[in-house]
């Protein structure tokens, strides 16, 4: 085996999963409502060679200071578009999803053999699918599992991994506000090291360094605001509302949560499980856009116990069939092996000498539970290679060839069906304040830059100055709707046809400029 | 279950029920439940709507008939005080069962057990209302208690409880599923009392058929479960940024924490916890069920989990589960009596009139009899009771209105395009809504006549001569 394949061999399975994810992601249509304003922001910054510090896109918050801290993500996104058109956007998306898939699979392999790790990683990736959209959020999707993988490597003793955390967070903090979650994870690992009485100085230094560094970076969203936005959504838009288990995505989350509860209740966990899973679950319950990150965080922690659970269930079933199952016990282990050890501080499956979760009749490695004497330094426990044969690597290579070949079959043009594309000529030909649907604001910023928007998906500029509230009042024809229209001297309204405001404005004599099945452009009577 | 556990549970249940009795009755759904109970006692079980003018004759759910009869029986016996007494009794049963389920898992540490039960009790507070749902959740708490107990008698009781529950509220379906799972596990376990598990399973199966609608009794709960009306607050998704949602999320987090750091759960805990946890993701009104189901597990496993963390800081040593103390019988009797006295006293001194300030009482004399009135959804049940001569457009029963009626209701109240067409088509003559509702705003702007108005409602006469403007 030559040097390159030998170096890649341990990564064959993650590479294969990444290739599959790339193939799936590259073929997705662009068209997320927020993609447009991210592109428009990137275009503005590239054209002006400056960052955006005040609003330049709206008629309701123009000149007001705002910062989203995603300048790098927006510039990269626009750079991809400017270089290769929509294909560039598709390749950026697929590349970042592939990075996420690679890291998530590595995480899964840290706790389980490939036969369990691959399905668990695939399930987590499937859970993240709704966020495979062309926004800087993709950087969080990719960098969060990378950071987790580094954390586990560092926890195993890799100083290089620990050192890499700081530049990673620095990069991430300029690409997307989700970086705050990365810093929280580093602090969690630091806290776990402290509580477990393992060497914690490096962890504390890394956590402090990431926290201080992002505070010093001028382009990053301030940590306080990033954390506040993650913990408490500003306005209840769909992605920031709780997930509904009656949707396919929500059902998958429920399945994941059920598997997690089942596994932990029957198999137990570690302090790290508790420290990571409890806050991540809380976040996932708060807003559906955090659900994928919960899934990623759960992967390395669940894959191991799940492996043993699956094996034990298989063993138990065989015994049931043979008629020899042991009686259920309250706790503390059963002859079936289904019930296992209570958690013992300092022991977990990621430590050397503990190949996987210890069974009830095995002695776990770790410090002396009586004295709490810490164990020695922990060498890194790498993701386990799935096989000693060269088949996985060959498969990964074949999948990557297929992935690259699939690019040729992709139509990367964005899906414009949710947008009022047919209204664009009329909008370009007219003037005045435009009242538009929130979801269409970003599209209009990109497609009709000459017409400032009323609101758009950037949200922050409109949440603080009361514009979002006024927008809601107008849209739903609440008592002050007329005052809102007059205050902003709205000249045109681009709305969905089923809006109450459409009927109210038409009753007031507004005329229909352009109309389609999904939109209507109303114009104030002259 | 020991005498002391029963006595302490009676005290806790009685004390909190006494607190609940200081609040007047007046849930918006109480009134249509009372009206339905009255109809059932007067004319037999009603299987078709008789209260609305938009769904008259449409099949209605019968899954709560016994709960409705109990409520109306209490009302006819003791007026609103009778309803208050039934509600207080149900709260006492609910809280008492939650407390008992906690105490049986840690009889030697009653303070810790009750402290851990507090979140479940607080979360259940949101449904301490005069509805069969309260009876249902009290019966669920009783089932959770029975499932904590060893032996065959709790399984027999669970079977009997399910058969009664199936006639009180649709939530019995959850209980039936849990009992079937427990029975399946029991039957797969060697040396288990198979007869008891078979009887429990039989009770679960019979509960589904021994109702007036047979297996059809699952129709309404099934509809609500798989197609929940999200626009109604209690059917919204649980949101951890609200108080009840935060309590639910914290409890879920504590279960995960305990599972990570404590001994493995017993299978029966897992059988109850996992399905109820997943169910609780579906709607706010299911979150108390999870809190109740999680309490016994948390009582057994949370303290050891916290001790693991504390031990790393040298704060606590190994767990030494204290043995329950023997309490003289006189003290147990005194505790139970104190709970009972508190509860009865609070009911006797409780508010004798319902809370109706949220309803448009001043509009009652102006309401015409016969069809033609569209009123707020939340007020429909109240109008059924207070203005029986004026049939409603919609009300809290929901099931008869699913589809076209609810769609038309929303179109009108939200003043969506075509709202005036719906008014014409349906023959709506009067609109009774809140002043801030879009239809009230638009009607006023269009110059329609307002017959009565207050801070809480506006009664508008539909103008037939107003200009029609439709896209």
Descriptive terms for the model:
heterodimer, A: 526 residues, mainly alpha, four-stranded mixed beta sheet, 21 helices, 56% helix, B: 471 residues, 2 domains, 17 helices, 3% strand, disordered C terminus
Topology:
The complex is a heterodimer of chains A (526) and B (471).
Chain A lengths: L2 H6 L3 H15 L6 H16 L22 H14 L1 H26 L2 H15 L8 H19 L3 H17 L3 H17 L5 H16 L6 H9 L16 H20 L3 H16 L4 H32 L68 H16 L17 H5 L4 E4 L4 H7 L12 H4 L3 H9 L5 H7 L2 E6 L4 H8 L3 E5 L4 E4 L3
Parallel strand pairs in A: 1-2
Antiparallel strand pairs in A: 2-4, 3-4
Helix pairs in contact in A: 2-5, 2-15, 3-4, 3-17, 4-5, 5-6, 5-7, 5-14, 6-12, 6-14, 7-8, 7-9, 7-14, 8-9, 8-10, 9-10, 9-13, 12-14, 13-14, 19-20
Chain B lengths: L2 H18 L9 H14 L21 H41 L4 H15 L7 H17 L4 H13 L6 H16 L6 H16 L9 H8 L16 H19 L5 H14 L6 H26 L16 H21 L23 E3 L1 H10 L17 H10 L5 H8 L3 E4 L4 H8 L3 E5 L4 E4 L10
Parallel strand pairs in B: 1-2
Antiparallel strand pairs in B: 2-4, 3-4
Helix pairs in contact in B: 1-3, 1-13, 2-3, 2-14, 3-4, 3-5, 3-12, 3-13, 4-12, 5-6, 5-12, 6-7, 6-8, 7-8, 7-11, 10-12, 11-12, 15-16
Q: How would you summarize what this structure contains?
A:
The complex is a heterodimer of chains A (526) and B (471). Chain A is mainly α and 526 residues long. Chain A is 56% helix and 4% strand.
Secondary structure tally: strands of chain A: 4
Q: Rg of chain A, please?
A: 26 Å
Extract low-pLDDT stretches of chain B.
Answer: 465-471
Largest sheet of chain A: 4 strands, mixed
The largest β sheet of chain B comes out as: 4 strands, mixed
* Largest interface summary: A-B, 67 and 61 residues
> Strand fraction band of chain A?
under 5%
Helical proportion of chain A, percent range: 55-70%
Got a strand count of chain B? 4
* Total individual domains of chain B: 2
Distance between the termini of chain B: 69 Å
State the helicity of chain B in percent bands. Answer: 55-70%
* Biggest β-sheet: strands ordered side by side in the sheet of chain B: 1-2-4-3
The topology string of helices and strands of chain A comes to HHHHHHHHHHHHHHHHEHHHHEHEE
- Give the DSSP E fraction of chain B (strand runs of 2 or more residues): under 5%
What's the mean pLDDT score of chain A? 85
Strand order across the biggest sheet of chain A?
Answer: 1-2-4-3
Structural class of chain A: mainly alpha
